[in-house]
């Protein structure tokens, strides 16, 4: 097994991570020319190191103005001062989100898609609910919400380094529409003036540029909520069903979700590139070397988590998992995501008796995320 593999091709990657954490916590993969870091301590060190930069996407001359504006201003993809501005913008936007109950969105999705008491949980709920919740919490109207939530699965490809010409053409089309919808919508929000002045004053940038950074980072919230939240809603449901327990309270569900984030996380790794030579446990990671930070490996490090290979929702430090990252680029939605997943699964377990309709779960062909392709379940009141 190599450091880079598609989750769809590996039945259980965790024994490999556990072995690497003990035997090769900082490993140079000669084939892929990448450092892979597995131990908790060293993953934290890389993520907190300001000279471990987010890798830049290769220049793609076929992307249009809107797509380029998006990839060059997203917090998730930027470094240095630009990152500080983008991150502050994303944080301010996030703080303006209205709290939205998920019950009505979930009920509508289930009612629309259930057939003979069966539903594909991934397609019908996990791929739609997080982004619809974010859209609703910013008061997007139904038509725009439907457009964005339907396009988001194709649009997240904008974050990937390799895009075919066909994908690029589609991305350009969606980028222009999503950018136009979002920019128009922001200017109608009641907090528009104060949002813009908060950012342009603190960062001393023009109002026009501020509006663009706000638009892009609001789009960033749609993008980020799609892949990772989908995986958590799926993986947490699988863990809960596998425990075959009777319905428990919200607190129990939340603990199960936090332990799922450690034990079977939706995001397995993230990447950095050394901006200068970096010393890590007496190893020199040379300037321009690529680094794979194996968050899912750190989560199974027995130096950090006692009996790390056991699913134990009562373990005291489960919430110290690295699934949301740490340091400058840490996820700004960690509490939001746990809350959202708790509310969704609470509603589901409270209203239905659930059983799973397949034995073997297949995973998406992704390197950085472990996300089920489909989960067919039956639901009875
Ligand atoms: C289970 C759900 C989620 C997981 C596991 C997750 C995970 C992560 C991780 C690992 C990072 C850091 C990446 C790195 O350091 O390279 C990150 C960043 C980020 N996340 Fe999340 N995320 C989740 C949900 C969300 C949601 C729902 C939103 C928005 C509503 C969001 C917004 C962001 C943003 C804007 C960043 C970039 C922060 C920055 O670079 O400064 N995430 N997320």
Automatic annotation (TrEMBL):
Coiled-coil intervals, chain numbering: none
Gene3D superfamilies for the chain: Cytochrome P450
CDD domains in the cross-refs: cytochrome_P450
Keyword Transcription assigned: no
Keywords: Heme, Iron, Metal-binding, Monooxygenase, Oxidoreductase
InterPro entries xrefs: Cyt_P450, Cyt_P450_B, Cyt_P450_CS, Cyt_P450_sf
Superkingdom: Bacteria
Mitochondrion found in the keyword field: no
Pfam families the UniProt entry points to: p450 (PF00067)
Family under the similarity heading: Belongs to the cytochrome P450 family.
Protein name as catalogued: Cytochrome P450
Biological source species: Flavobacterium artemisiae
